[in-house]
Amino acid sequence: MIMILLYHVIQGVEGATAAAQALSLPAEAYGNDPQLEVMWAMKAYNHAEIYFNLLSSVDPSNLKLTTVDDRIYTSFKESFSDLNIKNLDPDMLKTAEAKEKWRPFCNQFDGVVEDFNYGTLLRLDCVKDYTEENTIFATRIQFFAIEIARNREGFNTPVFQAKKQPS
Questions:
Q1: CB of 123 within 8 A of CB of 85?
Q2: Which first-to-last residue range defines the signal peptide (predicted)?
Q3: What confidence category does residue 13 fall into, taking pLDDT thresholds of 50, 70 and 90?
Q4: Per-residue pLDDT tens over the stretch 50-63
Q5: Are 85 and 155 a contacting pair, CB within 8 Å?
Q6: pLDDT at residue 90 in the model
Q7: In terms of pTM, does the model score above 0.90?
Q8: CB-based contact 56:158 (threshold 8 Å)
Q9: Using an 8 Å Cβ cutoff, are 120 and 38 in contact?
Q10: Are 115 and 40 in contact (CB under 8 A)?
């Protein structure tokens, strides 16, 4: 459904090229442009779709998401050892208190992880697909931290196993 809406907003190669150019400009170049929000939503959705297809095709324990996975994982576990990564509580990412705790973690990856603060879709329940009810908007470094931990700790394995089972 989201992809149908996005297809109507940005059609064809020219639309995709224009979207890529627009998304590469600095944030100061924009006001509150609804079309820009749709372009960001499309980019986030495409990223989510690719990632879920990857989880479904490759054993998640073998995935390397960045060149600094070990550093991200170590820092994440030091900062958020009590976070339930299997079933995320949106409040653990979105409340003012949570944002204060996440800010130093995220900012340490500025200049280390490309686009560390870009918006990305993150599944709340890691054994389920991206749906409206199971998805939250997070920064890319939050996505990497949580998904690297899910992969290393075996929480994403059921997605891979379910897709390789014959129907």
A1: no
A2: 1-15
A3: very low
A4: 999 999 999 999 99
A5: yes
A6: 95
A7: no
A8: no
A9: no
A10: no
The one-letter amino acid code at 17 reads T
Q: For residue 43, what are its two tokens? A: 């980019």
Looking up tokens 């949570």 gives 98
One-letter-per-residue 3-state SS of the chain: CHHHHHHHHCCHHHHHHHHHHHHCCCHHHCCCCHHHHHHHHHHHHHHHHHHHHHHHHCCHHHCCCCCCHHHHHHHHHHHCCCCCCCECCCHHHHCHHHHHHHHHHHHCCCCCCCCCCCEEEEECECCCCCCCCCEEEEEHHHHHHHHHHHHHCCCCHHHHHHHHCCC
Q: Give residue 89's identity as a one-letter amino acid code.
A: D
Tens digit of each residue's pLDDT (9 = 90 or more) over 58-92? 999 999 999 999 999 999 999 999 999 999 999 99
At residue 12, the pLDDT reads 43
Contact of 3 with 45, CB cutoff 8 Å: yes
Q: For the chain, what's the residue count?
A: 167
Q: From 3.10.105.10, 3.30.70.2750, 1.10.3560.10, 3.10.20.600, which CATH number describes the 2-164 domain?
A: 1.10.3560.10
